[in-house]
Specification:
There is one protein chain. By secondary structure, the protein is an alpha+beta fold. It has 2 domains: about 120 residues, Probable inorganic polyphosphate/atp-NAD kinase, domain 1 (Rossmann fold), CATH 3.40.50.10330; about 150 residues, Sandwich (Tumour Suppressor Smad4), CATH 2.60.200.40. The chain is built from 8 helices and 16 strands. The strands form 3 sheets. Strands 6-5-16-13-8-9 form a 6-stranded antiparallel sheet. Belongs to the diacylglycerol/lipid kinase family.
Length: about 300
């Protein structure tokens, strides 16, 4: 493996943590004897073009520095190639790193771990989701949570997580279940009323909400969590239990496992790794061993 590796940096992640984290991560890697090249694009597509060029030139690894959005962009550069992906998780949610047990908001520790992984050959192949024309590593969300994202993304004020807290309150005020059509692995179409449908390659989204607590990103299957037609009061009672993953014990919650999921619902956007994919319907496929990741 070449000693030259690529830091793929989002300078705006976590209110500037991405830019600040790049230096200690790079220092740890250089101290371990690696030659570090930094890629910062003028915009996401430019950054992706540069990362793909680094992969084509034979970089030893691509290290995403930022949050889940930056990891999602990096996946588009390395998925389906032998180039391993490392993560210095310094964003807001960092669910990809959480799922893989990687350091969160400790850039120097993440840099040292990546250096050890490169030297010791700590590599593992994990599955990815493929939806439309995009890869994702954690969860594809639709329904109530995606409506909150839609509303939050339209809001100019306030900044940060508070914006999405206010968006959630606004969506609760107008809350209603949505009619869905779901097909699993080419079977019969199910017509259901659901609050949300989450397709999990990983277990969590939104900064540690374990919406698909049993999901294993190396088993070739998604966990599909369906929260049924519960009322506003039930939703408010169930929501806090998502952080523990115990919401799946509620009678209004069902979990299915499938390698391919087709979901349709009018007026609903699909979000994967926190990034908008576009309106439903979407067909989502689990692609086994689609990316090689660095970690113990």
């Amino acid at each position: 493996m070449t000693s030259e590796i690529t830091l793929f940096v989002n300078p705006t992640a976590g209110r500037g943590r991405g830019a600040r984290a790049a230096q200690p991560a790079a220092s740890a890697l250089r101290a371990a004897g690696f030659c570090v090249r930094t890629v910062v694009g003028e915009h996401p597509e430019d950054a992706l073009t540069r990362a793909r060029a680094a992969v084509a030139d034979g970089t030893g690894a691509v290290i995403a520095v930022g949050g889940d959005g930056m990891v999602n962009l990096a996946l588009r550069a390395v998925a389906g190639t032998p180039t391993p992906l490392g993560v210095v998780a310094v964003g807001t949610g960092n669910d990809f790193a959480r799922v893989l047990g990687l350091p969160v908001r400790r850039p120097a520790a993440a840099g040292r771990m990546i250096a050890d992984a490169l030297k010791c050959g700590w590599l593992r192949d994990i599955d990815l989701g493929w939806a439309g024309d995009r890869w994702f590593g954690t969860v594809l969300a639709s329904g109530f949570d995606s409506r909150v994202n839609d509303r939050g993304n339209r809001m100019r004020w306030p900044a940060g997580r508070l914006k999405y807290d206010l968006a959630m309150l606004a969506e609760l005020a107008a809350f209603r279940p949505f009619p869905y059509l779901i097909r699993l692995d080419g079977g019969d179409v199910r017509e259901i009323e659901a609050t949300l449908v989450a397709v999990g390659n990983g277990s969590s989204y939104g900064g540690g909400m374990r919406i698909c607590p049993g999901a294993d990103p190396a088993d070739g299957l998604f966990d599909v969590t369906v929260v049924g037609d519960c009322g506003r009061g039930t939703l408010l009672r169930v929501f806090p239990t998502v952080y523990r993953g115990t919401h799946v014990d509620h009678p209004k919650v069902s979990v299915f496992r499938a390698a391919e999921v087709e979901i349709a619902a009018e007026g609903i956007t699909g979000y994967a790794d926190g990034e908008p994919l576009g309106p439903l319907p979407l067909t989502v496929r689990c692609i086994p061993a689609a990316v090689r990741v660095l970690g113990p």
